[in-house]
Design a protein that fits this description.
Layout (H helix, E strand, L loop, with lengths): L1 E17 L5 E21 L3 E6 L11 H13 L4 E7 L10 H16 L6 H11 L3 H6 L3 E4 L4 E4 L6 E6 L6 H6 L5 H4 L3 H10 L12 E2 L2 H7 L2 H11 L4 E4 L6 E5 L2 H14 L6 E6 L2
Parallel strand pairs: 1-8, 3-4
Antiparallel strand pairs: 1-2, 2-4, 2-5, 5-6, 7-10, 7-11, 9-10
Helix pairs in contact: 1-2, 1-3
Protein name: 4-(cytidine 5'-diphospho)-2-C-methyl-D-erythritol kinase
Keywords: ATP-binding, Kinase, Nucleotide-binding, Transferase
EC number: 2.7.1.148
Amino acid sequence: MRIKAPAKINLSLRVTSKREDGFHEIITLMQPLSLSDLITVTVNNGAGITITCDDPDIPTDGRNLAYKAALMFLEEAGLARKVHIDMGKRIPVAAGLGGGSSDGAATLQALNELTGAPLTEAQLHAIAAGLGSDVPFFLLRGSAVAGGRGELLRPVKLPGYSYILINPGFGVSAAWAYGNLTLTETSHNIRITDLEESAVALLERPSSVVDILENDLERAVAAQRPEVSELLLALKESGAAGALMSGSGPTVFGLFLSESGAAPALEALEERFKGYDYRIIAAKGL
C-alpha cells in the first residue's frame, strides 16, 4: 500500500510553559502541505520489520519513527506480521516540517488498513502521542489548532495558501531549539480558543493570516544561525504576504495568497540563491 506523508508548517507556534516532564506546553496552528514523502507498506505472514529508504542518511533501524510506529502497532494489535516499509524521502530532515512524524503516522494508518482495522482511532491516536508530539496531527489529514505537547487537536479548515519553503541545508534539533527558548509573558497569556477563533476567521478573510504569524522558537534559532533571518527577509522582499520559521526550524516559508504571486517569487529566489546549498520548494496548503 502506498500512502503520502505530507509535510506541515506552523502558521503560529506559541510556547506557554515548561512542564514537569521536561516537555513544553504549546499552542500552534498547523497546515499540511502538498510536499510529501511516499511511504509503501507491505505486510506478509511471518515476523520482523524492515525499512528501505532512498536517502542514505535516514536510519533504517529502531531509530526510525516508522519502524517504531510499526512495532507499537503490532504490539497493540496483538499481531505477528512481517512488515516492510519503503520510504521515498522528499521532506528535508530535522527541518521543522514534521517529516519523520508524518512518516510514522502514515505507517500507522497503512498498517491499520492492511490488517483489517484492528485498532480504533483512539488507539491509533494514543500510539501516535507516544511516538512524538506532532504524530497525532498527521493522523487528521487536515489543518488543526493544537495544544498540550501538540496532541490535543481541534481540526479547522484553512484557505489553500501557496508557500515557498527555503531549507538552508543544515538541521536543527527540536530539543535544542526548545532548550534555548526564553519564555515570554506574552506567550503565557495565549489561549487555544483565541488561536482557534483566528483560524476560523481566515476562511472569510485569508489575508488576516499575517496577524497570527508568530513563532516563539524563531528568535532562539536565528540567534545561532543568522541565515534564518536573512532568508526570512529574502522571502518578504520577494513579495510574500508574510514569512516565518516553521516549527523548530530551520526551514522558513513565505506565504502567498495566490499561486500567481508565488510563481515569479520562486523564480527570483532560485536565481538569487543560485550556488547556495539551499532547497527552495514550492508547496500548496492542503
